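Example 3.2
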Amino acid sequence: MANKRDYYEVLGIERSASDSQIKNAFRSLARKYHPDKNPGDEEAETNFKEIQEAYAILSNPQEKRKYDTFGHDRPGGSPFGSRGFQGVDISFDDLFGGGFDSIFSQFFGSSQRSSTRGSDLLVRHSVPFQTSMEGLEEELEIEVLKNCSNCDGSGSTIDEGSRSCPSCDGRGRIEQISMVGPFRQRVRKECAPCRGSGRLVSDPCDKCKGEGRAYQPIKVKFSINPGVVSGTRLRMRGQGESSSALNGEPGDLFIEIDVEPHPWFERDGPDLLMALPLSFADLSLGVTVEIPHIDSEKLKIKIPPGSIPGETISIPGRGLPSNRGRSRRGSVTAVLKLAVPKKQSRSMKKKIKEIRDEIEAELPSLEDRITSDAKSRRRD
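Structure, written as tokens:
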């Protein structure tokens, strides 16, 4: 065993590393050297097998204790038998989901169970546009499949009416590893005797029909930060459905926020855009207008004389808070438009006609105006 590397060195961790540090180190290195990521690379395959072996020992409390005491020269020889460690088949997806634990536990008959999580839930929740400015403390009441309150999740009306399924050891799934040519193939299927629940129930509960779960109303409190946008998802850990399997973990609840539209603002992140229809007199002579605003202070917009429809006026610092910090706010951009009365009185028409000739006299010819406008657009 003199040439065999230290398991802690293989995983790049200290001897005092915690269980989570051991797992994280293995997961990181296994992703790096996984055969699917390094096809045809013999060195990567050797490294992958080496870190598997190190993790198989260090992730098992009893084997880790023996290794810490004796190192590789433990009494009785290798725990993997005369052939030594042969490697196991771990899918690349398992390295992200953590589904590899139960595979390693089978080497030493570990009683550690692979818990099946309950389903995650998605709830869509609408909030007023003002929430994007001020944030909101909110509470929802929803129906969720939780542990039955009548039987405390056991599924049975009697104390000893629910027991772990011996066929799957309470996991709800049966895993089989077989050789297909030179490759190892792992098949994971639902346990038939317990129908995937991991438990066998006698004297089933009337309320949940032996499932151990029933729909119950729950209240969920959550905070929405200023600057929130539609599509933002808030994750409430452990607030999803309870697991159907024995000792399984509950899923998570995701709340997707839908921000209701504003009466006149359109939104681009923290920036706000609006149309500002003004009369010909206001555009020609200039004017300062005030409108209600989302920060409770009047929004003043100064339109200079001789303004043209289509021009924009920007007011910085009056938009919505940025996701990076409430002190930083976007801008408000107003697009000028010409508002023309649909109905005009006789006196109004007469006055317009009187000033039309005077205005036309001050302007270049129509053709010159068209040409000048085209040149201006092309320069821009």
